[in-house]
Protein backbone atom coordinates (compact mmCIF):
# COMPACT_ATOMS: atom_id res chain seq x y z
CA UNK A 1 0.00 0.00 0.00
CA UNK A 2 -0.06 3.27 -0.16
CA UNK A 3 -2.93 4.05 -2.42
CA UNK A 4 -2.51 7.30 -4.38
CA UNK A 5 -5.42 9.57 -5.24
CA UNK A 6 -5.63 12.68 -7.39
CA UNK A 7 -4.25 15.74 -5.64
CA UNK A 8 -3.42 14.09 -2.30
CA UNK A 9 -2.02 10.76 -1.15
CA UNK A 10 -2.40 8.80 2.02
CA UNK A 11 1.36 9.13 2.40
CA UNK A 12 0.90 12.90 2.72
CA UNK A 13 -1.77 12.36 5.33
CA UNK A 14 0.54 9.98 7.19
CA UNK A 15 3.42 12.42 7.11
CA UNK A 16 1.14 15.21 8.29
CA UNK A 17 -0.15 13.11 11.16
CA UNK A 18 3.39 12.28 12.21
CA UNK A 19 4.37 15.95 12.56
CA UNK A 20 3.58 17.63 15.83
CA UNK A 21 3.36 20.98 14.06
CA UNK A 22 0.07 19.92 12.48
CA UNK A 23 -3.00 20.54 14.63
CA UNK A 24 -5.87 18.06 14.89
CA UNK A 25 -8.15 20.14 12.71
CA UNK A 26 -5.53 20.19 9.92
CA UNK A 27 -5.07 16.44 10.23
CA UNK A 28 -8.81 15.79 10.00
CA UNK A 29 -9.09 18.10 7.00
CA UNK A 30 -6.30 16.27 5.16
CA UNK A 31 -7.72 12.89 6.05
CA UNK A 32 -11.26 13.83 5.00
CA UNK A 33 -9.94 15.23 1.71
CA UNK A 34 -8.21 11.94 1.02
CA UNK A 35 -11.36 9.97 1.84
CA UNK A 36 -13.60 12.17 -0.30
CA UNK A 37 -11.26 11.98 -3.30
CA UNK A 38 -10.78 8.24 -2.96
CA UNK A 39 -14.51 7.62 -2.89
CA UNK A 40 -15.57 10.09 -5.53
CA UNK A 41 -17.23 12.33 -2.97
CA UNK A 42 -19.04 9.56 -1.06
CA UNK A 43 -18.99 9.91 2.70
CA UNK A 44 -19.70 6.24 3.48
CA UNK A 45 -16.83 3.74 3.23
CA UNK A 46 -16.72 -0.01 3.27
CA UNK A 47 -14.58 -1.79 5.84
CA UNK A 48 -12.36 -2.95 2.99
CA UNK A 49 -11.26 0.67 2.44
CA UNK A 50 -8.24 2.24 4.10
CA UNK A 51 -10.47 3.32 7.02
CA UNK A 52 -10.87 -0.27 8.14
CA UNK A 53 -7.21 -1.16 8.07
CA UNK A 54 -5.27 -0.57 11.26
CA UNK A 55 -3.02 2.39 10.42
CA UNK A 56 0.63 1.24 10.55
CA UNK A 57 2.59 2.62 13.47
CA UNK A 58 5.70 2.93 11.32
CA UNK A 59 3.99 5.44 9.04
CA UNK A 60 2.60 7.74 11.69
CA UNK A 61 4.81 7.53 14.70
CA UNK A 62 3.27 5.77 17.66
CA UNK A 63 2.99 8.74 20.02
CA UNK A 64 1.28 11.08 17.57
CA UNK A 65 -1.15 8.37 16.38
CA UNK A 66 -2.19 7.53 19.92
CA UNK A 67 -2.77 11.21 20.52
CA UNK A 68 -4.81 11.62 17.37
CA UNK A 69 -6.84 8.45 17.87
CA UNK A 70 -8.13 9.15 21.35
CA UNK A 71 -7.99 12.93 21.01
CA UNK A 72 -9.61 13.35 24.43
CA UNK A 73 -9.07 16.59 26.26
CA UNK A 74 -9.79 15.83 29.91
CA UNK A 75 -11.14 19.38 30.36
CA UNK A 76 -13.57 19.01 27.46
CA UNK A 77 -17.21 18.87 28.59
CA UNK A 78 -19.38 15.92 27.61
CA UNK A 79 -21.60 17.83 25.17
CA UNK A 80 -18.62 19.15 23.18
CA UNK A 81 -16.97 15.73 23.20
CA UNK A 82 -20.13 14.00 21.96
CA UNK A 83 -20.61 16.64 19.25
CA UNK A 84 -17.03 16.16 18.09
CA UNK A 85 -17.35 12.40 17.75
CA UNK A 86 -20.81 12.63 16.20
CA UNK A 87 -19.33 14.81 13.46
CA UNK A 88 -17.13 11.89 12.35
CA UNK A 89 -18.32 9.75 9.49
CA UNK A 90 -19.63 6.30 10.38
CA UNK A 91 -18.40 3.37 8.30
CA UNK A 92 -20.96 0.97 6.84
CA UNK A 93 -20.08 -2.73 6.65
CA UNK A 94 -21.42 -5.74 4.80
CA UNK A 95 -21.79 -9.39 5.73
CA UNK A 96 -19.16 -10.37 3.14
CA UNK A 97 -16.68 -7.86 4.53
CA UNK A 98 -17.20 -9.14 8.07
CA UNK A 99 -16.49 -12.67 6.85
CA UNK A 100 -13.45 -11.70 4.79
CA UNK A 101 -12.01 -9.73 7.68
CA UNK A 102 -12.60 -12.60 10.11
CA UNK A 103 -10.79 -14.99 7.76
CA UNK A 104 -7.80 -12.66 7.54
CA UNK A 105 -8.31 -11.93 3.85
CA UNK A 106 -7.93 -8.19 4.44
CA UNK A 107 -4.72 -8.28 6.45
CA UNK A 108 -2.90 -6.85 3.43
CA UNK A 109 -4.74 -3.60 4.18
CA UNK A 110 -2.52 -3.22 7.25
CA UNK A 111 1.04 -2.47 6.20
CA UNK A 112 2.83 -3.85 9.26
CA UNK A 113 1.13 -7.25 9.44
CA UNK A 114 3.24 -9.02 6.83
CA UNK A 115 6.44 -8.98 8.82
CA UNK A 116 4.63 -9.98 11.99
CA UNK A 117 2.64 -12.87 10.63
CA UNK A 118 5.08 -14.13 7.98
CA UNK A 119 8.51 -13.47 9.42
CA UNK A 120 11.31 -15.25 7.56
CA UNK A 121 12.79 -16.28 10.90
CA UNK A 122 9.59 -17.92 12.03
CA UNK A 123 9.12 -21.27 10.29
CA UNK A 124 6.60 -22.73 12.74
CA UNK A 125 3.29 -22.86 10.86
CA UNK A 126 1.24 -22.93 14.06
CA UNK A 127 3.01 -19.79 15.28
CA UNK A 128 2.38 -18.12 11.94
CA UNK A 129 -1.31 -18.99 12.18
CA UNK A 130 -1.43 -17.66 15.72
CA UNK A 131 0.27 -14.43 14.68
CA UNK A 132 -2.10 -14.00 11.76
CA UNK A 133 -5.09 -14.55 14.03
CA UNK A 134 -3.74 -11.97 16.47
CA UNK A 135 -3.33 -9.50 13.62
CA UNK A 136 -6.96 -10.06 12.60
CA UNK A 137 -8.07 -9.28 16.14
CA UNK A 138 -5.92 -6.14 16.27
CA UNK A 139 -7.29 -5.05 12.91
CA UNK A 140 -10.91 -5.53 13.99
CA UNK A 141 -10.28 -3.98 17.41
CA UNK A 142 -8.68 -0.93 15.76
CA UNK A 143 -11.76 -0.48 13.58
CA UNK A 144 -14.10 -0.74 16.58
CA UNK A 145 -11.88 1.70 18.48
CA UNK A 146 -12.55 4.34 15.81
CA UNK A 147 -16.11 3.37 14.92
CA UNK A 148 -17.97 2.71 18.18
CA UNK A 149 -17.52 6.17 19.77
CA UNK A 150 -19.03 7.83 16.67
CA UNK A 151 -22.03 5.50 16.68
CA UNK A 152 -22.62 5.96 20.40
CA UNK A 153 -22.28 9.73 20.08
CA UNK A 154 -25.03 9.83 17.42
CA UNK A 155 -27.37 7.92 19.70
CA UNK A 156 -26.59 10.08 22.73
CA UNK A 157 -27.55 13.14 20.69
CA UNK A 158 -30.73 11.40 19.55
CA UNK A 159 -31.65 10.40 23.12
CA UNK A 160 -31.16 14.00 24.23
CA UNK A 161 -33.50 15.46 21.63
CA UNK A 162 -36.29 12.92 21.12
CA UNK A 163 -39.64 14.51 22.09
CA UNK A 164 -41.59 13.21 25.10
CA UNK A 165 -39.50 10.05 25.63
CA UNK A 166 -36.29 11.88 26.57
CA UNK A 167 -37.85 12.75 29.93
CA UNK A 168 -38.92 9.21 30.79
CA UNK A 169 -36.83 7.68 33.65
CA UNK A 170 -35.99 4.50 31.74
CA UNK A 171 -34.87 6.43 28.66
CA UNK A 172 -32.65 8.64 30.83
CA UNK A 173 -31.11 5.45 32.23
CA UNK A 174 -30.42 4.22 28.69
CA UNK A 175 -28.83 7.56 27.88
CA UNK A 176 -26.61 7.22 30.97
CA UNK A 177 -25.60 3.72 29.82
CA UNK A 178 -24.58 5.05 26.40
CA UNK A 179 -22.66 7.95 27.97
CA UNK A 180 -20.80 5.58 30.30
CA UNK A 181 -19.78 3.32 27.40
CA UNK A 182 -18.82 6.31 25.26
CA UNK A 183 -16.58 7.74 28.00
CA UNK A 184 -14.84 4.39 28.50
CA UNK A 185 -14.13 4.01 24.79
CA UNK A 186 -12.75 7.49 24.16
CA UNK A 187 -10.40 7.23 27.16
CA UNK A 188 -9.06 3.83 26.09
CA UNK A 189 -5.60 3.61 24.41
CA UNK A 190 -5.59 2.31 20.84
CA UNK A 191 -5.44 -1.52 20.70
CA UNK A 192 -2.28 -1.71 18.59
CA UNK A 193 -0.68 -4.76 20.20
CA UNK A 194 -1.62 -8.07 21.86
CA UNK A 195 -1.80 -6.67 25.39
CA UNK A 196 -3.77 -3.53 24.54
CA UNK A 197 -6.06 -5.60 22.29
CA UNK A 198 -6.81 -7.94 25.19
CA UNK A 199 -7.66 -5.00 27.44
CA UNK A 200 -9.85 -3.53 24.73
CA UNK A 201 -11.68 -6.86 24.39
CA UNK A 202 -12.49 -6.84 28.11
CA UNK A 203 -13.81 -3.30 27.79
CA UNK A 204 -16.14 -3.98 24.85
CA UNK A 205 -17.32 -7.25 26.38
CA UNK A 206 -18.42 -5.26 29.41
CA UNK A 207 -20.18 -2.78 27.12
CA UNK A 208 -21.89 -5.64 25.28
CA UNK A 209 -23.22 -7.08 28.54
CA UNK A 210 -24.17 -3.68 29.92
CA UNK A 211 -26.30 -2.91 26.85
CA UNK A 212 -28.12 -6.27 26.85
CA UNK A 213 -31.15 -4.84 28.62
CA UNK A 214 -31.43 -1.70 26.52
CA UNK A 215 -34.25 -3.04 24.32
CA UNK A 216 -36.48 -3.75 27.32
CA UNK A 217 -35.44 -0.49 28.98
CA UNK A 218 -36.59 1.47 25.93
CA UNK A 219 -39.82 -0.54 25.93
CA UNK A 220 -40.22 0.45 29.56
CA UNK A 221 -39.75 4.06 28.47
CA UNK A 222 -42.63 3.67 26.00
CA UNK A 223 -44.71 2.08 28.77
CA UNK A 224 -43.92 5.02 31.06
CA UNK A 225 -44.97 7.44 28.33
CA UNK A 226 -48.27 5.57 27.86
CA UNK A 227 -48.88 5.76 31.61
CA UNK A 228 -48.11 9.49 31.68
CA UNK A 229 -50.58 10.05 28.85
CA UNK A 230 -53.30 8.08 30.60
CA UNK A 231 -52.79 10.13 33.77
CA UNK A 232 -52.86 13.38 31.82
CA UNK A 233 -49.30 14.24 32.87
CA UNK A 234 -48.36 14.72 29.20
CA UNK A 235 -50.56 16.12 26.47
CA UNK A 236 -49.76 15.48 22.82
CA UNK A 237 -50.54 17.96 20.08
CA UNK A 238 -53.87 16.50 19.09
CA UNK A 239 -55.14 16.49 15.53
CA UNK A 240 -58.33 14.65 16.22
CA UNK A 241 -58.80 11.17 17.59
CA UNK A 242 -57.84 9.80 20.97
CA UNK A 243 -54.54 10.35 22.72
CA UNK A 244 -53.58 6.69 22.44
CA UNK A 245 -54.35 6.61 18.71
CA UNK A 246 -52.07 9.58 18.15
CA UNK A 247 -49.47 7.98 20.40
CA UNK A 248 -49.33 4.91 18.15
CA UNK A 249 -49.01 7.09 15.05
CA UNK A 250 -46.39 9.64 16.17
CA UNK A 251 -44.01 9.57 13.23
CA UNK A 252 -41.21 11.47 14.93
CA UNK A 253 -41.05 8.94 17.75
CA UNK A 254 -41.25 6.05 15.28
CA UNK A 255 -38.38 7.47 13.24
CA UNK A 256 -36.31 7.90 16.40
CA UNK A 257 -36.94 4.31 17.52
CA UNK A 258 -36.14 2.99 14.04
CA UNK A 259 -32.81 4.83 14.10
CA UNK A 260 -32.08 3.75 17.63
CA UNK A 261 -32.76 0.04 17.12
CA UNK A 262 -31.05 -0.13 13.73
CA UNK A 263 -27.96 1.43 15.28
CA UNK A 264 -28.20 -0.92 18.25
CA UNK A 265 -28.28 -3.94 15.96
CA UNK A 266 -25.17 -2.66 14.20
CA UNK A 267 -23.25 -2.02 17.41
CA UNK A 268 -24.07 -5.47 18.75
CA UNK A 269 -23.15 -7.12 15.44
CA UNK A 270 -19.74 -5.42 15.39
CA UNK A 271 -18.93 -6.19 19.04
CA UNK A 272 -20.47 -9.68 18.87
CA UNK A 273 -18.43 -10.51 15.76
CA UNK A 274 -15.21 -9.33 17.38
CA UNK A 275 -15.80 -11.28 20.61
CA UNK A 276 -16.81 -14.40 18.67
CA UNK A 277 -13.60 -14.18 16.62
CA UNK A 278 -11.62 -14.10 19.87
CA UNK A 279 -13.45 -17.20 21.15
CA UNK A 280 -12.95 -19.02 17.85
CA UNK A 281 -9.21 -19.24 18.54
CA UNK A 282 -9.93 -22.04 21.02
CA UNK A 283 -13.36 -23.17 19.83
CA UNK A 284 -13.03 -23.59 16.07
CA UNK A 285 -16.16 -24.29 14.03
CA UNK A 286 -15.50 -24.45 10.27
CA UNK A 287 -19.09 -23.41 9.54
CA UNK A 288 -18.75 -20.11 11.41
CA UNK A 289 -16.73 -16.94 11.01
CA UNK A 290 -17.47 -15.16 14.27
CA UNK A 291 -21.25 -14.96 14.62
CA UNK A 292 -21.82 -15.55 10.90
CA UNK A 293 -22.86 -19.02 9.79
CA UNK A 294 -21.21 -19.56 6.42
CA UNK A 295 -23.66 -22.37 5.65
CA UNK A 296 -26.80 -21.16 7.43
CA UNK A 297 -29.63 -23.62 6.74
CA UNK A 298 -33.09 -21.96 6.90
CA UNK A 299 -34.78 -25.35 7.29
CA UNK A 300 -32.84 -26.12 10.48
CA UNK A 301 -33.54 -22.67 11.91
CA UNK A 302 -37.24 -22.91 11.05
CA UNK A 303 -37.35 -26.26 12.85
CA UNK A 304 -35.80 -24.80 16.01
CA UNK A 305 -38.09 -21.77 15.87
CA UNK A 306 -41.12 -24.09 15.56
CA UNK A 307 -40.04 -25.97 18.69
CA UNK A 308 -39.64 -22.71 20.63
CA UNK A 309 -42.92 -21.21 19.40
CA UNK A 310 -44.78 -24.47 20.14
CA UNK A 311 -43.40 -24.44 23.68
CA UNK A 312 -44.58 -20.86 24.20
CA UNK A 313 -48.01 -21.50 22.69
CA UNK A 314 -48.56 -24.71 24.68
CA UNK A 315 -47.59 -22.94 27.88
CA UNK A 316 -50.35 -20.39 27.34
CA UNK A 317 -53.09 -22.35 25.56
CA UNK A 318 -52.35 -25.95 26.51
CA UNK A 319 -51.77 -26.89 22.86
CA UNK A 320 -50.46 -25.53 19.57
CA UNK A 321 -51.29 -25.88 15.86
CA UNK A 322 -49.11 -28.00 13.60
CA UNK A 323 -46.54 -26.39 11.32
CA UNK A 324 -45.72 -27.82 7.89
CA UNK A 325 -42.46 -26.98 6.11
CA UNK A 326 -42.03 -27.21 2.35
CA UNK A 327 -39.36 -26.09 -0.10
CA UNK A 328 -35.63 -26.65 -0.21
CA UNK A 329 -34.42 -28.27 3.01
CA UNK A 330 -30.81 -28.31 1.75
CA UNK A 331 -30.52 -24.60 0.99
CA UNK A 332 -27.61 -22.83 2.72
CA UNK A 333 -26.20 -19.32 2.54
CA UNK A 334 -24.08 -17.02 4.73
CA UNK A 335 -26.10 -15.25 7.41
CA UNK A 336 -26.32 -14.57 11.15
CA UNK A 337 -28.40 -17.52 12.46
CA UNK A 338 -29.51 -15.75 15.64
CA UNK A 339 -31.05 -12.94 13.58
CA UNK A 340 -32.98 -15.36 11.40
CA UNK A 341 -34.16 -17.33 14.43
CA UNK A 342 -35.47 -14.15 16.06
CA UNK A 343 -37.44 -13.20 12.94
CA UNK A 344 -38.94 -16.66 12.42
CA UNK A 345 -39.80 -17.14 16.10
CA UNK A 346 -41.67 -13.84 16.10
CA UNK A 347 -43.66 -14.75 12.98
CA UNK A 348 -44.46 -18.27 14.15
CA UNK A 349 -45.59 -17.30 17.64
CA UNK A 350 -47.81 -14.57 16.11
CA UNK A 351 -49.35 -17.12 13.74
CA UNK A 352 -49.89 -19.65 16.50
CA UNK A 353 -51.51 -17.09 18.79
CA UNK A 354 -53.78 -15.86 15.99
CA UNK A 355 -54.77 -19.41 15.07
CA UNK A 356 -55.60 -20.37 18.66
CA UNK A 357 -57.55 -17.15 19.30
CA UNK A 358 -59.49 -17.23 16.03
CA UNK A 359 -60.46 -20.89 16.14
CA UNK A 360 -61.16 -20.93 19.87
CA UNK A 361 -58.77 -22.53 22.35
CA UNK A 362 -61.57 -23.60 24.67
CA UNK A 363 -62.74 -27.04 23.73
CA UNK A 364 -61.12 -26.91 20.30
CA UNK A 365 -59.57 -30.14 19.05
CA UNK A 366 -55.97 -29.45 17.98
CA UNK A 367 -56.50 -31.85 15.06
CA UNK A 368 -59.13 -29.47 13.72
CA UNK A 369 -56.89 -26.43 13.81
CA UNK A 370 -55.61 -25.35 10.38
CA UNK A 371 -51.84 -25.87 10.16
CA UNK A 372 -49.35 -23.07 9.68
CA UNK A 373 -47.43 -23.34 6.43
CA UNK A 374 -43.76 -22.40 6.05
CA UNK A 375 -42.33 -22.31 2.53
CA UNK A 376 -38.58 -21.92 1.80
CA UNK A 377 -37.62 -20.69 -1.68
CA UNK A 378 -35.54 -23.23 -3.54
CA UNK A 379 -34.05 -21.49 -6.57
CA UNK A 380 -30.25 -21.26 -6.53
CA UNK A 381 -30.32 -18.57 -9.18
CA UNK A 382 -32.54 -16.28 -7.09
CA UNK A 383 -30.97 -13.13 -5.60
CA UNK A 384 -32.95 -13.56 -2.37
CA UNK A 385 -33.68 -16.37 0.03
CA UNK A 386 -37.42 -16.05 0.66
CA UNK A 387 -39.32 -17.66 3.52
CA UNK A 388 -43.11 -17.47 3.76
CA UNK A 389 -45.08 -18.06 6.96
CA UNK A 390 -48.82 -18.42 6.29
CA UNK A 391 -51.65 -18.95 8.76
CA UNK A 392 -55.44 -19.05 8.84
CA UNK A 393 -55.71 -17.09 12.07
CA UNK A 394 -58.36 -14.62 10.97
CA UNK A 395 -56.09 -11.96 9.49
CA UNK A 396 -55.53 -8.33 10.44
CA UNK A 397 -58.02 -5.50 9.86
CA UNK A 398 -56.81 -3.15 7.13
CA UNK A 399 -57.03 -0.22 9.55
CA UNK A 400 -54.42 -1.91 11.76
CA UNK A 401 -51.91 -2.80 9.03
CA UNK A 402 -49.84 0.35 9.53
CA UNK A 403 -49.93 -0.01 13.31
CA UNK A 404 -48.34 -3.48 13.33
CA UNK A 405 -45.02 -1.80 12.44
CA UNK A 406 -45.29 0.66 15.31
CA UNK A 407 -43.06 0.31 18.36
CA UNK A 408 -45.77 2.14 20.27
CA UNK A 409 -48.75 -0.07 19.45
CA UNK A 410 -49.71 -3.22 21.36
CA UNK A 411 -52.97 -5.00 22.09
CA UNK A 412 -51.60 -6.48 25.30
CA UNK A 413 -53.05 -5.51 28.67
CA UNK A 414 -50.89 -2.98 30.58
CA UNK A 415 -50.44 -5.50 33.39
CA UNK A 416 -48.92 -7.98 30.90
CA UNK A 417 -46.63 -5.30 29.53
CA UNK A 418 -45.42 -4.37 33.00
CA UNK A 419 -44.87 -8.00 33.96
CA UNK A 420 -42.89 -8.68 30.80
CA UNK A 421 -40.68 -5.65 31.40
CA UNK A 422 -39.85 -6.87 34.91
CA UNK A 423 -39.24 -10.49 33.89
CA UNK A 424 -37.03 -9.73 30.88
CA UNK A 425 -35.03 -6.79 32.16
CA UNK A 426 -31.59 -7.96 31.02
CA UNK A 427 -32.28 -10.00 27.87
CA UNK A 428 -32.76 -9.14 24.22
CA UNK A 429 -35.32 -11.82 23.46
CA UNK A 430 -36.09 -15.42 24.27
CA UNK A 431 -38.72 -18.08 24.90
CA UNK A 432 -39.46 -16.86 28.42
CA UNK A 433 -41.67 -14.03 27.18
CA UNK A 434 -45.44 -14.32 26.67
CA UNK A 435 -46.93 -14.58 23.18
CA UNK A 436 -47.90 -10.91 23.23
CA UNK A 437 -46.45 -8.07 25.24
CA UNK A 438 -44.19 -5.20 24.32
CA UNK A 439 -45.43 -4.69 20.76
CA UNK A 440 -41.82 -4.62 19.54
CA UNK A 441 -41.66 -8.01 17.85
CA UNK A 442 -42.58 -7.17 14.25
CA UNK A 443 -40.77 -3.82 13.90
CA UNK A 444 -37.60 -5.26 15.46
CA UNK A 445 -37.87 -8.32 13.19
CA UNK A 446 -38.13 -6.06 10.15
CA UNK A 447 -35.06 -4.11 11.35
CA UNK A 448 -33.12 -7.38 11.59
CA UNK A 449 -34.23 -8.39 8.08
CA UNK A 450 -33.39 -4.98 6.61
CA UNK A 451 -30.04 -4.74 8.35
CA UNK A 452 -28.20 -6.72 5.66
CA UNK A 453 -30.41 -5.64 2.75
CA UNK A 454 -33.46 -7.89 3.19
CA UNK A 455 -37.01 -7.08 4.18
CA UNK A 456 -40.09 -8.34 6.01
CA UNK A 457 -43.54 -7.76 4.57
CA UNK A 458 -47.04 -8.75 5.69
CA UNK A 459 -50.11 -9.43 3.56
CA UNK A 460 -53.39 -10.15 5.33
CA UNK A 461 -56.96 -11.08 4.49
CA UNK A 462 -59.29 -10.15 7.31
CA UNK A 463 -61.50 -13.08 8.23
CA UNK A 464 -59.07 -15.63 6.78
CA UNK A 465 -55.39 -15.29 7.64
CA UNK A 466 -52.00 -13.66 7.19
CA UNK A 467 -48.96 -14.32 5.00
CA UNK A 468 -45.55 -13.02 6.09
CA UNK A 469 -42.60 -12.89 3.66
CA UNK A 470 -38.99 -12.75 4.80
CA UNK A 471 -36.53 -11.67 2.08
CA UNK A 472 -32.82 -12.17 2.80
CA UNK A 473 -29.99 -11.24 0.41
CA UNK A 474 -28.21 -14.43 -0.60
CA UNK A 475 -24.81 -12.90 -1.44
CA UNK A 476 -24.41 -10.82 1.73
CA UNK A 477 -22.89 -7.91 -0.19
CA UNK A 478 -25.33 -5.22 1.00
CA UNK A 479 -23.91 -2.72 3.45
CA UNK A 480 -25.68 -1.95 6.69
CA UNK A 481 -27.92 1.13 6.86
CA UNK A 482 -26.37 3.70 9.15
CA UNK A 483 -28.82 6.09 10.81
CA UNK A 484 -27.50 9.56 11.55
Number of alpha- plus pi-helical segments: 17
Poorly predicted parts:
1-31, 33-69, 111-125
| Helix residue percentage | 40-55%
Task: Estimate the global geometry from the Cα principal axes.
Answer: globular
Largest sheet: 5 strands, mixed
| Strands side by side in the biggest sheet | 5-7-8-10-9
Distance between the termini: 31 Å
Radius of gyration: 25 Å
How does this model look, in words?
- With 484 residues, this protein is α+β, with helices and mostly antiparallel strands.
- Helices cover 51% and strands 10% of the residues.
- It is built from 17 helices and 10 strands.
- The protein has helices spanning 10-18, 24-38, 57-60, 62-70, 78-86, 95-102, 113-117, 125-161, 169-186, 194-210, 214-230, 243-248, 251-279, 298-317, 337-359, 414-423, 441-451, and strands at residues 4-5, 8-9, 288-289, 292-296, 323-327, 333-335, 372-376, 384-391, 455-461, 465-473.
- Helix 1 packs antiparallel against helix 2 (24-38), helix 8 packs across helix 9 and helix 8 packs antiparallel against helix 13.
- The longest helix is centred in the first third of the chain and has 37 residues, at 125-161.
Give the SSE map.
Layout: E1 4-5, E2 8-9, H1 10-18, H2 24-38, H3 57-60, H4 62-70, H5 78-86, H6 95-102, H7 113-117, H8 125-161, H9 169-186, H10 194-210, H11 214-230, H12 243-248, H13 251-279, E3 288-289, E4 292-296, H14 298-317, E5 323-327, E6 333-335, H15 337-359, E7 372-376, E8 384-391, H16 414-423, H17 441-451, E9 455-461, E10 465-473
Helix pairs in contact: 1-2, 5-8, 8-9, 8-10, 8-13, 9-10, 9-11, 10-13, 11-16, 13-17, 14-15, 15-17
Amino acid sequence: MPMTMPGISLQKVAVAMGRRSYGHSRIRALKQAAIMESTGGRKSLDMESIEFAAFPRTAFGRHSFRKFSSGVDQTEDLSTLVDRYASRQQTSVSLQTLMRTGRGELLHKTANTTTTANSDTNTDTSNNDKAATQQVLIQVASFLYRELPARLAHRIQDLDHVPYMSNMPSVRNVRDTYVSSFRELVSQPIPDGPNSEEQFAKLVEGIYDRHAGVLVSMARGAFELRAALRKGEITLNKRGGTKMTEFAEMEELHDFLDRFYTSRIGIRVLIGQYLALRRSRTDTDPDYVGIIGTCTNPYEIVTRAIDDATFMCTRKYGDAPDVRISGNAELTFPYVPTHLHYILLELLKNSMRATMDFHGPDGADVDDLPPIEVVISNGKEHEDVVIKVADEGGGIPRSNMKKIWSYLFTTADPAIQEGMIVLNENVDHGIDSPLAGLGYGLPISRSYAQYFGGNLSIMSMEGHGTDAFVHLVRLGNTREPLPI
